[in-house]
Structures are given as structure tokens and as C-alpha cells.
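User: Assemble these into one structure.

Assistant: Restating your components, then the assembled model:
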Amino acid sequence: MTVISHITCPVCGDFCDDIEVTVEDNVITDVKNACAVGAARFLNYATHRRTKPLIRKDGELVEASLDEAIRKSAEILADATYPLLFGWSSTSCEATRVGLELAEEVGGVIDNTSTICHGPSILGIQDIGISSCTLGQLRHRADLIFYWGSNPWDAHPRHIERYTMFTEGRFQRSTWRKYVSRLGGTVTEKRLQRTANLLLDHHPPTPIETGQGLPYTMFQKKRKMVVADVRKTRTAEAADYFLQVEPNRDYELLQAFRMLIRDGELDVEEVAGVPVELLEEVADVMIGCELGVFFFGLGLTMSEGRHRNIDAALSLVRDLNQYTKFLIMPMRGHFNVTGANVVFTWQTGYPFAVDLSQGFPRYNPGETSTIDILRRRESDAALVIGSDPLAHFPKKTAQNLIKNPLIAIDPELTPTTLMADVVIPPAYVGIEAEGTAYRMDHVPLPLKKIVDPPETCLSDEEILRRILNEVRRIRRKLN
Amino acid sequence: MIILTPKRSFTVPVGGECISPDTFAAKSTSEMANLPVWEGNKKRALGHLFRIELKTAPSESLTIRIRGDAGRIRRIGAKMSSGRIVIEGNAGMHLGEEMNGGAITVVGNAGSWAGSRMKKGTIEIKGDAGHYIGAAYRGSNKGMNGGAITIYGNAGNEVGCFMRKGLIKIHGDVGQFTGIHMKNGTIYIGGDSEVRAGAQMLGGKIVVLGRIPSILPTFTIDDIKSRVKIDGEKVEGPFYRFLGDLAENGNGKLFISQKQNTHLTPCERFL
Ligand code: SF4
């Protein structure tokens, strides 16, 4: 039995680096410090995994040797006129680097999953710029935490505990105790409400009246949290204040905040369902904080307006910096989506949606992005790595993806691997293979190898390297 | 006149930068046929993809006519400075990008980024157009800087994004964020507009003749005007005039038809 500590968790963008695992006979038997999602990954990753490559023959996926699968993949890519290489957010930076080399060699479009998550954030940042920092800074100093369209309680389970409200910073205290006592209060309040409704026979039950205006906790000199979202999530329940935005009206609300921060007056009574008086109070709290941080998630990037919402959020933070210190950070999803953006950028100059078909990089989301290419049915082959587009893409794009040859590098049984023409199961990076990944705040951390992979499973990097060599061999032969 | 007829239909994108009167000028048909064109990742000769016919009429300026569908051909007429291009079907993205003179007519629809960063000349689209008409390149703040774009059908989002000068006339409807970040110039919408027209604008003028669901809270009503002038031509109103975007200290003007937008009547109390 060996205990390995300081392991990084290859699941969400928080990329926790304090995990401890126990290994017995090449099997992980215990995990400490991880959240439920992370622990499940370490303990159950191998439950449904595949170990043998598959190739589609006469409409059926049949087992094949690794060499055969690699040869077939190389042939598909070498033949294509406009291949698409998609995924990259759940693999190591080293594999992404080889992927970019492969995309250049085959003259394809390479795109990572930002294209369907934080792509709008990147477009906003390119237009406006960003004032950001590392999570360590926030942990010690931030006294106002703003989550907009993001629900870390469920999506980044240790974010609040490690970096914001419930962490003991050098200059800011944890609000964990306050939360626990408030939780008790909320439960009692709910019980009372239920009893009152039963006794008074209210149909439908009437909620207890809460007064307009911010709660007193928002004016204390303590760490506080505001959540803006379309519905009251678990994160919102833990917040000092929750702003309920009408769906798809985030842009209006952000612009209204900008105006109030400039001491402007609004000619309306409410914006996006929130009364202007309340907005003025929240704006005062934002100006009055010592260090504020604005985290935003897909609730903002994917609500109507997309990159313009981010444009407004970044501008709001820029405006706030005239009065106090305010920072902003996207809540990245996959553990290495930031790394995919970083590697893409240092290799090609652009963070996602890079078209290398003419031998040099071109970038124009909307034109060179995966969804748009597939919607217009322009690509004629695809390689997908560490992603399941068939389960997540819009119907028409998913249909177009499988009309052409498809290669999937993925150990899991997913709709994409089931419909692919070649399936190559790799070793799990961060568990069976090592590498590097970037946390959401652009801090690179190592992915460790904890157990040995099955003999037939190579790392993503090695598989891609072999496909690349095979493509080069085919090209040489043709020339 | 030079007539280009596609020899087959295209699926992957074709780079049509060379289809411009400036490139074709003083070239024989065989020289034109040898011009390089990218079809996906394959470098081909123009003659491989198009049949090229030359019909010279000495008096007229150089005209290129594309017979057939050019919906997958991008950057037709990019950087052209004179002459004329007529596309009898659809045109692909980036039509007339960075155009510096001359005229383009599209009988069908045009893709996104038509007339982006153009400086001079005219583009006329008889059908619909995509998003980002007369816009800037991604990450740049220099949109259309002169010339005129007329669209008889509808257009998508972000028409005139970062526009600095010139005129965009759309007779149909438009999507969201018309004139976002625009500094100057005029956008005329004959039909309806979706929300957020004039978002983050610093200057310039947007006229909406049809209905708009709402005006951004960062605009303030300033006046009711009986008519508005567009490129020397008077358009009869009455129009609400809004100023903004105040979140950017902007001085842009939104002219919104009063008759079509009775839901905006409550704004009049601020006058
Ligand atoms: S918060 Fe994310 S990175 Fe941390 S343990 Fe949970 S799943 Fe893993």
C-alpha cells in the first residue's frame, strides 16, 4: 500500500493540487481531500473504460490493433481537404502541442472546447482587456466576491472552500461559521413558514415577506458574497445577497451597473427585473469594497449577447478600478481548458478556432469555429480527443459530424465513440499518464502518474505523435 | 467583362481573394486561370475551379460577373479599389473586405462580415446578409471607415460593429447589437430591430423605422423629431431621439419611429 500526496485532480477548472490517494496493487483504493466529483473520478475511472482500439468495418465497430487504428486515422487525416481537430481541454498541454503540429501537417482546423463554453470570454477579453490575478491573491485579500451566472457549489465544488468565502485568508476571515448559523436560521424560517401556511390554510403557500434593500451583512467590514443568476442555486443560498436576473437580460443589468458607478441616473424603475434602488445599493457596496472579484460562468457567456455580456462585465470591472481594486476571472470548466488556450496561443497566436488549412494560422470564431464549420457542413473528416461532441452539440452539427470519417481518442463509451470510425482508448492523463495542465487562473501544475495504464493504452501525446509520424510517412510516399 | 462560372459546387471553403478587378486587370485569360486559389487545404488554380470567359467592351471599367453560386467563396473583391463585381447567386463571407473603391452587387444572399473594414466603394445585396456587416476584424476596433452598404433583405447581429464612417442601409430587419461600439457613421434600418441597438456606441446615428422591443437603460430620451436626414435624404418621422451610450459617456443618437413603438410612450415623461 502506498500513499501518494499532492496529486492534482483532473476534473474541473479548479484543478485542486492537494489530493492524497492510496494505491494497492496498481488500484486506487482511497482518496482524501477531493470533493465527491473528484473522488469518484479517482475511484471509478476504470469502471467503464475500454482498452482495445476499434475500427468500423462493414458498419460495425470491431477490435483492431493499435498500429492498425493509427494507420487508419492517419489515412483519414491525410486524405481530408478540410479536417477538424476538436477537444483538447481534458488532455495535457504536451498532447495539445503535438495536436497542433498534427493540425498544421494535415492542414486542418483545430479548436478546443472553449468554442462552446468560454469562447465568448476570450472574444470579450480581446476587445476590452482583462484585469485578473491568481486565486492565491483572492484567497487572502478579496472582501467582495461576486459570482455571475456561475454555480461553483455544484460545478466547482471546492472553489468556495479553497479560494473564496470559506477559506481562511491572511487578511480575510472565513465565513464558514456565519454560513452554518445562517443555514440554521434559514431552516427554521422555512419550517415556520410551512407551519404558518398550514395553520392559515394558504393556497398557494405565501412566502414570508422579505423587505426590499440589502441585508445588513452587506454593509459589514467582512468578506461578503453576491450572486447574480437566473435562479436561486445552492451558491446563491450561501450568498449574502442574491440578484435574480431575468433570463437573457444580463447585458442590460451590467450596463446599468456601469452607469450607476459613473454616478449616472437611470430613466427607468427597474432593469432586468431588479429595482434600480437596489442596484444603486449594490453599486455602492462594489465601490466601497477593498478588493472585489467578479467570477463569471456559462450563465453569462451563453446567455443572449454572449461575448458582449463579457465585454460589459470587463468594462464594469475596468470602471470600478477607478474607485477601488476589482478583478475578474472566468470560471473555467475542464481541468485543462485554460492550458489548451495557452498552448494554442503560444503555438499559433490564437487561443481557439485556429484554421491552419492554408499553412498559416487564421482565427475568426463564427468562420473558423467548430460549431459553425459543422453547421455549414464544410469539414470532411474529424478527430475528437477527450470530448463528447455528439452528446453536447446542437443536433444538426452532430449529424454533420458523423457524415464524414470520425476518429475518437477517448477511453470512455460515449455517443461519439459509438459513432466513430476509429476509436483509440488512451491512458487517463493525471492518473495513468503524466503531463502539465493550467488551473483556471493560468497557473501551470503537474499532472501525475499514479498507477500504470493497461498495456494497450498509450498516453494521448504518444498516440498523436504516432499518428503524426504516420501522416508524414504517407505524405512522403505520395510525393 | 470577365465571366466566371463555377465548374462544380464547393463544400469546403474557397479563398476568393484573387477575384478582384485589381488582380484581373491587364491579365490574359490563361494568366487568370493560373491564379492560385485555396480550396480547403489544397492549392488549386482558378481555372481548375471556374470557367473563365473574357468579353471585352473597351468603354466600361473592368467588370467581373460570377454566374452561379459563390456561397462558399470567401473574400471576393477583398481590397479592390476600382471596377465592378456582379455575383448572380449567393456570395460567401468577407465580401468586399477592406474594399477601397469600386462596386459589388450580389443578387442572392451574402455571408457574414460583408464590407468589413471597407473604406470606399459600394456594396449592394439584393437578398439577406449575415452578421457583422461593415464590422471590424476580431479584436480590432477599426470597423468600416467609409463607403456604403445597401441590403434589401435582412441582416444578422452586430451590424456596423466598431463602425467609424460611412453608411449602412438595411431595408429589412436586423438582429441584436446594431452599431455596437460605433464611433461615427449612419445605420438605417427600414424594418424591425432586435434589442440592444447602439450598445456601447460613442457617436454616430442609428435610425429604426420599424419596431424595437426595448431601448437600453443606458440611453436617455432627448427629443421627438419630425424627420431625420440620412445621407442628404429626408426620412419622415416622427422619431424619438435617444442619446447614449451613457455607460461609455457616448454621444450617439438613436432615432426610433414613434408610431411603430407605442410601448416606448412612457419615456416621454422624461422630456
Ligand atoms: S473541485 Fe474540481 S478539481 Fe477540486 S477535487 Fe473537486 S472536481 Fe477535483
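The two ends of chain B are 57 Å apart (CA to CA).
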